[in-house]
Every structure is written in C-alpha cells, then in structure tokens.
Amino acid sequence: MWSWVLHRITGVAIFFFLLVHILDTALVRVSPEAYNAVIGTYQTPIMGLGEVALVGAIVFHAFNGLRIILIDFWSKGTKYQKVMFYVVIALWVITMLGFTPRHLINVFSH
Amino acid sequence: MSQTLDAPRTPVRPARKKGVNWEKWGWIYMRVSGVVLVVLIFGHLFMNLMVGDGVSAIDFAFVGGKWASPFWQWWDVAMLWLALIHGGNGMRTLVNDYARGPKLRAAFKVAILASVAILILLGTLVVFTFDPCPVGQPADLLPSFCAA
Amino acid sequence: MSTAVIDEAAPAPTPEVIESFTVTVIIRRFDPEVDEQPKWVDYDVEMFATDRILDALHKIKWEQDGSLTFRRSCAHGICGSDAMRINGRNRLACKTLIKDLDISKPIYVEAIKGLPLEKDLIVDMDPFFESFREVQPFLIPSSKPGAGKERIQSVADRARFDDTTKCILCAACTSSCPIFWTDGQYFGPAAIVNAHRFIFDSRDDAAKVRLDILNDQEGVWRCRTTFNCTDACPRGIQVTQAIAEVKQAIMRGKP
Amino acid sequence: MTQDPSDSTIIDGVHYHQFDIVIVGAGGAGMRAAIEAGPGARTAVISKLYPTRSHTGAAQGGMAAALANVEEDSWEWHTFDTVKGGDYLVDQDAAEILAKEAIDAVIDLENMGLPFNRTPEGKIDQRRFGGHTSDHGKAPVRRACYAADRTGHMILQTLFQNCVRLGINFFNEFYVLDVIMSDVDGVEQPAGVVAYELSTGELHVFHSKAIIFATGGFGKIFKTTSNAHTLTGDGVGIIWRKKLPLEDMEFFQFHPTGLAGLGILLTEGARGEGAILRNASGERFMERYAPTIKDLAPRDIVARCMVKEVAEGRGAGPNKDYVYLDCTHLGAEVLETKLPDITEFARTYLGVDPVTEPVPVMPTAHYAMGGIPTNVKAEVLRDNTTVVPGLYAAGECACVSVHGSNRLGTNSLLDINVFGKRAGNNAVEYVQTAEFLPLPEDPAKEVRETIEGIRANAGGERIAVLRRELQEQMDMKAQVFRTDESLAEVTETIHQLRDRYRNISVQDKGRRYNTDLLEAVELGFLLDLAEVVVFSARNRKESRGGHMRDDYPDRDDENYMKHTMAYLTGDPLSSDAADHIRLDWKPVVMTRYQPMERKY
Ligand SMILES: Cc1cc2nc3c(=O)[nH]c(=O)nc-3n(C[C@H](O)[C@H](O)[C@H](O)COP(=O)(O)OP(=O)(O)OC[C@H]3O[C@@H](n4cnc5c(N)ncnc54)[C@H](O)[C@@H]3O)c2cc1C
Ligand code: HEM
Ligand code: SF4
Ligand code: F3S
Ligand code: FES
C-alpha cells in the first residue's frame, strides 16, 4: 500500500518537474544568457535542497519501479514483495548517502 | 477518498472495441520504458550532478559540450521520449482513477496529451537544431571548442 | 494485619477463571431512515481475550442496542458474511480475536469501503456479485466426459488452481483495493480470483474468453500491485499472485 | 442479482410474483434442485442469505459414493452401512436409492466443475469416514469423495456457479415466513409463499404451482452447535404451523469433535485420516468401546463414549470437561494438505496447533435427522402416506428417512444432492400439468400481522435472553443424555419462554435491514421446534442412534422400531404440550436388512 502511494506521488512529482525541465533546457535555443540565467537558479542553496528531494524521488521511483517489474514478471515476485520493498528502501538510503553530501558540497562551495 | 460510489460496476464506459488493446500495451510499455529509463536517467543524473563540480558546473557551455556529440544527443532524446510518454501514460492512469465524470476525464487527458506532444516536439527540435556556437554571442559563454 | 495472612497463605492455584475486561468498541453507524450522515458511536463491552469481534457485536446487539445491524452466519470464517473494517483493516469479524488487537485503545469498526452503504455495517453486495458473474465463473469444457465418468485430472493439474478455489466471496479484497475505492468500475480482485480458478483448471476450455474479458480497460491492467487484497484475504489466498498470473496469461495468450 | 420479473405487481404495498416453481433456500439442496428446475420451468430461488453464505459451505469431510476408485466397494455395502448406522430406523428403500444414485451425484458434481482431490491416476480420491465399511462391517472403507476439508464449500460454490451459468432467478435476503394454502375440494394445497424482504421490510407473495423447501437445519435450538446463527429451522417451523406433520424430531445428531466450548466442527475426516481420541491420561478410549473400528465408530456411539469418559472423571483440562483429538502423529504435511481448514480453526480459535498438540474437543449439536416427512420422490406427506400435491422438501429440513436415528458422516452432502435433484425433477414434471391455484383474498395478512405485532409489542423481554435460556436448557437437558425428568424440566422451561415470548420487544422499529425483528421471528420457530423435539424425545422410551435416554439405555425394537410423527393439533400456546401436539407412528420400510445389534 505505502510503496504504491509513494510510487504514485513520486511519479507525479517527476512528471511535473520534467515538464519544467524541458522548457528550461529549451532556452538553450533562445540564447546562452537566458539559459544560464535560469540554470543559475538551480545552483542556489534552496534549489540545491530541492534537487536532493527530486533525486530522492527519482531514485525511489526507479528502484520501486524495478520492484514492481519483478513482481509482475518474476514468478516468486509476489512472495518476496515485502522483502523487495525493504531492499528498495535500503538501496535508496545507500544511493542518497552517496549523492547528497557530494551534491550539497557542490552547491554550497560555490 | 469517498466512502461509496453511486453505482459501482455499472459499465459507464463502453466495453473495449476491437483493435489494439491500449491498456495492455500501455502496461507493458510502462515496464519496458521503466527499465530503459533507469539506465538513461541514472546516467544523466550521474553526468550532470556527480561528475566534476556537479550542478554548479552546468551552464550553456556544458550543455553545448555535451550535445556536440551525437551520443549524448541521442541519449537525451531517447530519455525525453521515453520519460514523457511514460509519465504521460502514468498521469492518464491517475486521471482514470481519480477524475469523475466523462467530461473532466477527457479534459485532463487532452491536457496531458497536448503537453506531452508539445514538449516532445520542442525537446527534439532543440536537441537536433541546437547550435553550440551561435554567432554574435560572447565567447566566454560558449563551449571552448567554438573558439577553434 | 490482613496482608500478613495473605502472605502466609499457600500460593493460590493458577487461576482457572479466565479474566474478562472491558473493551471499547466504536462503530460507524448509519440508519438510512434517520441519519443524513454516518456517525461514530461508542460501546463498552465485557469481553474475554478469546472472544471474537463478532461476539462483541452480538453482545452489543443483544444486550445494549438491538438496532445495530450487521450480517453474519457461520461464525467461523467460511460463509463470508461479515467482512468489515476493523481498526482500518478489512477482516472477518468472526475471525478476529480480541487478543490479537490492542485493547488498550478503542476498537474501530465500520463497513467495508467502496460499496454503497445500506445500514450500519451492511453494504449493497449486488455490484460485487455482478462483477463475479461477468467473468463467467463456471466450468466451460469443450468435450463431454464418458457417460457416468469423471474427467481425469492429475494431482499436479488440480493443485495448479487450488489457492483460488478457497474464495468465499467475502469481498474483503475488492473493498480494500484503493483502485476500487476511487473507481468502482474496476472488476476487482475477487472477480479476477474467480476467473483465475477456471482459467487454470485443466478441464476448462474457455480461458480465452475470460482472459479477453479481463484484458479490458477495467480488467487486470488496473491493478497496481498494492497488495491490500492479499493482506485482507481471510482465506490466505495469494490474490496479487493470482492477478499477476492472469496478466501473464493474457500476454502469453493462453493459461 | 435480485431480478424482479416484469410481471411483478404491487397491490396494497405487497409485491406479487408468479413462478411455476419456487425454491425456498439456496443451500446445497435448494441450488441442486434449481439446476434441474431452472431449465425446465419458470423458477425462483428465495433465500434469506446470499446463496454462498448457506451452511452447506461449512461441511468439511466429504461426500460418500461407492465409486470404488481406490478400493473395492459397492452401493449395497453403502446401503447396509447407512441402515446400520441409522440404527435400523432407516427406510431401506430410500437408503438404497441414496447409495445407488450417489455415484451419479458425485460424477454430476465433478462434471459441473467441482475440484475433487485426485488419486495418482487422476481419478476422484476417496477417504475413510465413520461407519463406512466394506462387506457389511468387515473393515473401514475409503468411500468419501472429498476436496481437502472444504468439500461443502466446493459443493456450494460449484452449484452456485452453475446457477449463474443457467441464469437462475435468485431473491436474496428474502425471508420466507409462510406458505399459502388454498382449499381445493376440502383439501389444503400450497399456492405460494410469503416472503419478507430484508432490505426494505416489504412483503412479497410468490404465487406458484410447486414449492420446494430446502431451508436446512435448526441446530440453534442448542447452545453448543456446529450450525450457523441463521440455522433456525424456519422452513420446518412454517410446515409445522400449517399443521403438517414432522417426523423423527427427537433424533438430533451430536458430532463428537466440536472445538471444546465453541462447537466449531473438526471433521470426522480427521479421524478418517488417522487421528485418535484420547482421555486425560492419554488412553485411546475408543478401543474399549468399539474394538474393531475404534475411533471410526458412528457418531452417536463416539459422542456417547466421550461424554461417558468425562462423566467418569477421565476428562482433560482444568475442569476435566473435554477429551483430546490427537493429530500430532499425522504430520504437518497431511494436516496442511488434507485438513488445512480445521488446522487453522484450532489455531485461530483455541490457539492450539494440531501439528504439535492434541486439540480439546467435545460433542456439538450438528444435524437434524428428523424434519418434514417426504417420500422418495421428495414429495411432502400430510400423514404416513398421503402426498401434499406440489409441495416438496429436500436436504436437512426433510426426513426421507435415509438417516434413521443417526446419520453417517458424508451422507448428508449426498442427501442434498440426490434428493435435491429429485425434488427439482419431480417439481418440473408436476408443473407441466398443474394449474395455479387461486390465492386467498389477502395472502400476506398473517405474516403482516405477526410482523407488525412484534414491531408494536412493548413488553420488556429481550429476544437474546429468551434464546440463550432456551439454548442453555436444551444443552443441559436434551443433549447427548436425556431422562424423562430432564426432558420434563426443559418442556416446562419452553412453556415459560413461550409465555415470555409474548412480551418481547424489538428495539429496531425501522423497515430497512431490520435484523432485530427477524431474530424475534426466528426465535418463534426455535421455540416451536424445541418443543416438538423434546415432546417426541420424551415419548420414545428407548435409546437409539442420536436419541439416548439414561433411563432407558437399550434399544427397544419391539415397541419403538417405528418413526415418530408429530402433529400440531391445537393452540400452540396452550400450557400443556399434550394439548396441542399429537404423536403418531409410521412404520419403517425394511427391504433387505433385518435389525441386528449394532456392534463395531
Ligand atoms: C460444520 C458442518 C460440517 C458438516 N460436514 C459434513 C460432511 O463432511 N459431510 C456431509 O455429508 N455432511 C456434512 N454436514 C451436514 C451438511 O453440510 C448439511 O446437512 C447440509 O449441507 C444441509 O444442506 P441444506 O441445503 O439442506 O441446507 P443449508 O445449506 O443450511 O441451506 C439452507 C438454506 O435455506 C435458506 N433459508 C433458511 N430459512 C429460510 C427462510 N425462512 N427463508 C428463505 N430462505 C431460508 C438459507 O438461506 C440457506 O440458503 C456438515 C454440517 C456442518 C454444520
Ligand atoms: C527511473 C526509471 C523509472 C522506472 C523504473 C519507472 C517505473 C515505473 C513503473 C513500473 C510504473 C508502473 C506502475 C504500475 O503500473 O503500478 C511507473 C508508473 C509511473 N511513472 Fe515511472 N518509472 C521511471 C521513471 C519515471 C519518470 C522519469 C517519470 C516522470 C515523467 C515517471 C512517472 C510515472 C508516473 C506518473 C507513473 C504512474 C504512477 C501510478 O500509476 O501510480 N516515471 N513507473
Ligand atoms: S479472494 Fe479472499 S478476500 Fe477476496 S472475496 Fe475471496 S476470500 Fe474474500
Ligand atoms: S488491492 Fe488492488 S491494486 Fe491490485 S494488488 Fe490488490 S487488486
Ligand atoms: S460469519 Fe461466516 S465468515 Fe464470519
């Protein structure tokens, strides 16, 4: 139940981010200044934290997505669905531990 | 979530007409694209956020540098298509689940379809018509190879 | 001093009288002839640890308020009458023992969700049985066995669909499915379970028909593997597994 | 699911429907009849429960038929076992039909889709059950066809599935409360039934040419019972109130292995698979009583031995009030695959794991051998021989009598299939030529008055209190052991309860889903039936099958080798039962087997 709620929320969140992200990237066609101005806002500390959240969402959605795929296609998937959910959480924690410090240093050291 | 529905299991929507079964293929697509997207998105995030100075290194020059290579061009276009259709189809599921009434439902779906279609078109055009060294722009904003 | 006497007394034999205690049950009540909206009502009942929620409901109905309305029959989990939401989970009242709940807090009891509420803990089951009927839940063989003879079925073939033969049509699964709550058009897990029972029966020859019915907008593809149904099933049926097997069968085009 | 046919009309708030055949009850017997009747005539099945909630679904162990799939067997042996098991009070012509048609009944179910357990060759598997023997009692035989310990569940589901296939008209959660009788040339004949619709509180009249009663048992006259809360004997009670006779009501079966204190059944199939009854000291006490077939002796014998063990101080537990069913030597594998449900019942309700511990058990009220007398065509009788045209009964509510004074395990699932089918077929044949009888002026009048009477009653008595007292007294004084004294006492109690019943009040005054009101109606039936049971029991001064008199411990063939027929003759409320119940006898049909002492 909760894995599904999270998957859904993260999916929607990523979708809306993606819409914005394509629009801002499209600014490279307008002019380098325009693009740099927008992308500059991504580098502020507040957005930096937002990016952590975004990456967290993507990572969860991705790992849990793989879990769902295993449930669907692996004959023992339903049996181990709970175990796999804990694995998803564990992998998520590990990934975020690898990413967050590195990213925040990048954001705050500039 | 509401307690009850007025009429559960009354077929308000007509049964599926013969032809391609979008439900099934949509379902399969979600899974196939999901697997591919893991690779694409993780690669993308890794390149942009982890390598070098991460997010603070991203600017016009960075993008220009990447898209100079067809490899990254195709990478990003694939990601664009797969992710948008994946996300769009996912949003359609949500609309089916939560939106009540045929009109509201149709409106949402049109909106999703339109935004996905426009963005795919826009994104693809941007990537392929992108000129990393536009004329008349300050050289310090451009990728280093423009000077050559 | 009186305490000394007690101290000196031989150790009391292990108490044979089992202790009872007071449990607060809060029931979501609704009388369509009077109430606009359902309301939560508290009841205190004297219970034993080995009593079931059904006993508590009976005690309330029989001793406190005869107007409390719920369905029940067999009282031991085989007729499927009394699926309800107990502390937020779908269960059979007759299979939920007081001792398995945290009785330091009140116990919340309400009707299952997603089907039209009729009165107190009773919902309209007709839509539920309607989706059951739609999946053609009966054996459709293409050949006739010899007169006065059974069809032959190997032990392994019989075991293939054993799990889904256990269904008692209690609706605990369907009414716990978040997809069914928001959009009651979904066939729901119970119907799929009963289709599964025939799709994988080696004696049946109409799997294609049922797979086609479930390969629909409101069919198996709506299932988002939330597992609520599996958690709710009082018969321990691996409902999500059954749904997954039906999805696989649709993709293969045969059971 | 409820389909109101278009010709239903409403007059003065009462709905009128017309069907050729009306079947009351959607358990095994009712739905088996419907499968025959549906395709041949316009049929309606009226049931107070959704069909799949019927108590046939609780049956566990199996259904007997001499298929001889695993060892030599014959329907003659099956007939003999049935006759002997019923302590020779069985009508042997009926038993022969039961045993012969058993084979087709099982095959029919298999062909309809029932998932029986299979032998290695893929045939229907069979197992042992109490009282079923080879070659007239030589050794236990494998005769019970089964689907794990969910045979009844599978039968109920399979029959329901086939009713869905045939598009049978169901009227679910409709309580039939009366049969409409019309006078035809001075003879009362059924013209339809009156039903109360639970969801609306409205009354429905079903005008029909033929009526099949399949309303199941009435175990709720007892406190400790394997029966469902809804088994209140409404059908039998309705027939009784119409002054039609009831047969052999004193014979009620107490199943040996109910979970102690709860009454939830553990199938005899457990003993069929090898489980053993033990007393407190661990002794296998059945060896003393039935040296040949031990724990697989018929139920009446085993139940009596268990009660004896406890009475003589060899009971187990803190109060020495139960014995053990020991399954530990069967191993987890057998328990999980062949007896999964009862294993779970013991775990859930007693917290005892049969794999490692013996399970506390005591006899539980289980099955009514008696009921509405019918002939082998399932036609209801108004005396020993005369048929009531158009009225049929099948299943536990009926008494054919294939079970005599004690039913053998697995013979009831058989009974509902064999005689359910017969009832359906014969009803179809009957309605081909029969006419609809005219309905009286206001056919629902009586039911309306009863219902409104109860609703308006402002007395102080609570239904649950009266019911509890009835059940406790019946358990104490009319259960496995009975004496003239105990039966006299409980008769007295019933009269007092009857008086108090006039002062009941229901708290729910509403129309929609008023289960409070219906519990009151059901209690009325329970009181009536309990009285007949006790009155008939007092009159039979012998011990036979399920009826055991402490003061007359022996079987008395000279005086009592005959069926009891009870008739309601006067005002049921009169204080002395003898003023309104007349008892009569009906001879037992004997064809082949002469009564012998019953030794196992
Ligand atoms: C726990 C248990 C285990 C058993 N195990 C076995 C076994 O292993 N083998 C075996 O052979 N037998 C077994 N039996 C006995 C057997 O299951 C029953 O005798 C048999 O199923 C009765 O079937 P039925 O169709 O007559 O009645 P039921 O299945 O009880 O059906 C009665 C029907 O009548 C309806 N009804 C009742 N009153 C009314 C009314 N007023 N208006 C409308 N409808 C009404 C009910 O809704 C229900 O649909 C077992 C019994 C029990 C209790
Ligand atoms: C990173 C790799 C990804 C994987 C492995 C993945 C996997 C999945 C899967 C398997 C589903 C189907 C869930 C179901 O049917 O129950 C799904 C749903 C969804 N995905 Fe993704 N996805 C990924 C990336 C994305 C991206 C980038 C977006 C945003 C554009 C997205 C948005 C959605 C949405 C909105 C849903 C619908 C959620 C729902 O119905 O509950 N996903 N994803
Ligand atoms: S699958 Fe389980 S929960 Fe669902 S209806 Fe059947 S028994 Fe009930
Ligand atoms: S709860 Fe619903 S979403 Fe699927 S796994 Fe069960 S049917
Ligand atoms: S009362 Fe039959 S399942 Fe609970």
CATH topology of the largest domain in chain C: Fumarate Reductase Iron-sulfur Protein, Chain B, domain 2
How many domains of chain C, as an integer?
A: 2
The 3D shape of chain D can be described as: globular
Write the CATH architecture name of the domain at 259-363 in chain D.
Alpha-Beta Complex
Helix content of chain D: 25-40%
Mean pLDDT of chain C: 90
- Which small-molecule ligands are present, each listed once? flavin-adenine dinucleotide, protoporphyrin IX containing FE, iron/sulfur cluster, FE3-S4 cluster, FE2/S2 (inorganic) cluster
User: What's the CATH superfamily of the domain at 259-363 in chain D, by name?
Assistant: Succinate dehydrogenase/fumarate reductase flavoprotein, catalytic domain
Summed over residues and divided by their number, the pLDDT of chain D gives a mean of 94
Give the terminus-to-terminus CA distance of chain C.
Answer: 80 Å
The CATH C-level name of the largest domain in chain C is: Mainly Alpha
Strand order of the largest sheet of chain C: 2-1-5-3-4
Q: Largest sheet of chain C at a glance?
A: 5 strands, mixed
Beta percentage of chain C is 5-15%
> Tell me, what's the shape of chain C?
elongated
CATH architectural grouping of the largest domain in chain C: Orthogonal Bundle
**Computed structural class of chain D:** alpha+beta
Q: Helix count of chain C?
A: 10
List keywords for this structure.
heterotetramer; C: 255 residues; alpha+beta; Ubiquitin-like (UB roll); Fumarate Reductase Iron-sulfur Protein, Chain B, domain 2; 2 domains; 5-stranded mixed sheet; two-stranded antiparallel sheet; 7 strands; 15% strand; elongated; D: 600 residues; Flavocytochrome C3, Chain A, domain 1; 9-stranded mixed sheet; 4-stranded antiparallel sheet; 17 helices; disordered N terminus; binds flavin-adenine dinucleotide; binds protoporphyrin IX containing FE; binds iron/sulfur cluster; binds FE3-S4 cluster
